[in-house]
Task: structure prediction
Amino acid sequence: MYIVQIAPECAPVAKVGGLADVVFDLTRELEIRGNEVHIILPKYDCMRYDHIWGLQVSMKDLWVPWYNGAVHCSVWFGFVHGRKCFFIEPHSQDNFFNRGHFYGFSDDVSRFAFFSKAALEFLHKDNRRPDIIHCHDWQTGLVPVLLFEQYVHGGMHWQRVCYTIHNFKHQGLTGEYALWATGLTNIAHYFNYDRLRDNFNHTAVNLMKGGIVYSNFVTTVSPTHAHEARFTDQGSGLSHTLNVHQSKFGGVLNGIDYEVWNPEIDPHIASRYNIETLDKKYENKDALRDRLWLRKDFKPIIAYVGRLDSQKGVDLIHHAIFYALRNNAQFVLLGSSPEPNINHHFWNLKRHLNDSPDCHLELGFNEELSHLIYAGADMIVMPSLFEPCGLTQMIALKYGTVPIVRAVGGLQDTVFDKDYDGRPWEQRNGFVFHNADHAGLESAMHRAIALWFAYPDDFRELMIHGMQCDYSWCRPGQDYLNIYDLIRCK
Result:
């Protein structure tokens, strides 16, 4: 099968969040299974060009229709750690992708509307006819609209689109100018509630909604989040649209890359280990304490690794730190915040706790340190208000670090409570709470800490259960192939 992924990110060359990892990892899994996969990305000036091999011009003169004229582009090709990637570089006074950052500009909708148009124009002009076009998030929501309203009349009859939504919060709301720019000039046709008109803002076009309506299949990144998006406010206003199109909507749980996140081969930890050599994990605990100047005492280390933003439950993270310290545990935090008020709060907290021998807050992100924290901590806490998938808990499980999570999204699909889950004991791997409040968090942390002290053999079994879980890309890779086969038959 020939598959093209059209995305705004791909790890490690253009990465802001988990979307980038999904694009790279899923592509590799599909290639392992014998498929031909290409990735189309914008050619940002801020990409990690040191991760691209053999970068060369693939198409020198790609003219992309835009408003009443056309924008001249070059298309580059290169290998990103073995993945075959095309990069679209527009030569325009709009300077779409030479901004020093990936996102965050007032004309982001125009930038990615152009990218969507250019990606399809490249496939069309270069006579590339993939079986499947797999698009990601609002930035590529116009791809299926353009394909089925324009390019189907230019010879792209048999292409089918799978559209994956990683984050419902950002949907690409815009005015009708985005339609004019890309040649969708029958405004009344598209400004319809059955097509692109936003469900709540009647003056706005919603690119994500367009992706849902026009795609052959729509996924989000976990089965539970698919349910949440349809039946709770986590659909961010798109629940009705998802219910209308429920027959082509489902959740596919993301995977993680066990060539990167694996304590048996990890080059960033002090001592490598597996289930048979689990005692070596505690050498990493000692190394973590040495690195962060924590005292060596008989108590567990609880960690938090990730962004510090409202989604992650910052009030509960704050509370978890002090609850751990009050209950004879140590706490390590590694994270940063894009929100100035949250960033300021945690810097004040860091100064307040600076002299504590049982706590270290590392504000920023350090990839190498994150590996050591996963290997050295006993537990990891994720009190998210919402979490479409979550990778942190999957990584923690692989490292024998017991997760303490709130029952939302992908956390609910991957972590099963030691005491209350209905699964057999050998499938239980962590601690889960439901209410997003201090009492809910404390209930789970209390049970985890008490088990560590009072029943170490049971705690060790829980660690082993987690390490035995398989959250690789093997199963989701097959799930996506099943979806591709389904929509190819339509």
Q: What stands out?
A: The two ends are 16 Å apart (CA to CA). Residues 108-125 form the longest helix (18 residues).
